[in-house]
Write a structure and sequence with these properties.
The chain is elongated and about 55 Å long. The chain has four helices and no strands. It is mainly alpha-helical and about 100 residues long.
Length: about 100
């Protein structure tokens, strides 16, 4: 990447989106999973994340042979906010929050 501004913007947006996903997951986990199962669920989540990391690196490497790296970087900076929004909507965070308040 030869454009520092585009690279920094992509990293910022991607990092912020990843952070948003982590906050959503960290909030939902103790609210939706029984306390005696949280350790198992968190371990499974971590295992799956680590297991698929080499797969994502392999896909990115193969994709870099076809698509310019600049395009991959821009897309990697644009897609995460939409995924975070989709997780927010699909995870029904607002519904879960309202339900949690009613139960306490």
């Amino acid at each position: 990447m030869d454009n520092l501004v585009v690279m920094l913007a992509s990293l910022f947006v991607g990092g912020a989106s990843t952070g948003a996903g982590a906050v959503i997951w960290g909030t939902l986990l103790p609210r939706l999973i029984p306390m005696e199962m949280i350790g198992r669920v968190a371990s499974l989540d971590f295992f799956v994340s680590i297991a698929f990391m080499p797969v994502s690196i392999a896909i990115a490497g193969l994709l870099a042979l076809i698509v310019p790296v600049e395009t991959i970087s821009i897309v990697a900076g644009i897609i995460p906010p939409f995924l975070a929004l989709a997780a927010l909507v699909a995870g029904r965070m607002r519904h879960t929050e309202i339900l949690q308040r009613l139960c306490t």
